[in-house]
Amino acid sequence: MSTPRAAALEKLLTVVDSLREPDGCPWDRKQTVTTMAKYVLEEGYELVEAIEQGDDLATQEELGDLLMVLAMICRIASEGERFDIEQAAETVAEKLVRRHPHVFGDQDAAEDAEAALASWESVKSAEREAKGVDASALAGLPLGLPALARAARTCEKAIGSGFRWDTAAGAFAKVEEELGELRAALAPVDLDAVKVRPVGADKDHVEAELGDLLMASAFFARYLGLDPEACLREALRRFESRFREMESSLDGPIAEHDLPALMAAWEAAKTATGAAPARNLTD
Hints:
This protein is an all-alpha fold. The protein is built from twelve helices and no strands. α3 (33-52) packs antiparallel against α4 (56-79), α7 packs across α8 and α8 packs across α10.
């Protein structure tokens, strides 16, 4: 039975097909699956930004752009008889049913989101083992993910496998532990005397401990139900807004002002641009 959403998707596919026809668009006809890959990331990031800004119209537009890219990739692949959008849709639909036995099968209903995640990871691991591929609980994480996003997914997979702290307090204690180890690695250095690089410190040691601290912080974010990548993006937005406000309030270039003057301007900029929005972690 035809439905409005089916009709809308069919319209998109028809447009994409037309673009690839001999009398279609030269740019679209020139594309390959490989050349289109970068647009998945580009449109994905634009979509995330629209969602984080709470802009529904922009989110709708960016979702459409991403759908178009995915439809174009499937159309191009079908021309080489590699796969098509029907196969892609059927594959993911079957996967969703298979990995939700608590919804579509005879397994008891999942008590909460964590139980559902554990069930998903269990089915996924069994599938990979049956195929004779890496069946680790951490398998399948793309190496190309941004580091914070990969840390968040790694944490989720570790938790789903049962490797987890009982409470967020354990995860926070790990952050404090890693901060202490970083301090120890920097102990040979008088940081007050260093302007750029702590000469005398073991670079590899400091790098390792700083990496551990960043990862522990990302893991802690997940225990709070937060996305560390989103946390950092929002912090960067606040920094840029305050920095630009500070710049505009100063007479002349930043380099012409001493640190006390800059810090005073920075604090004024924080007041002018507003504090970070207050939200309850249970929201």
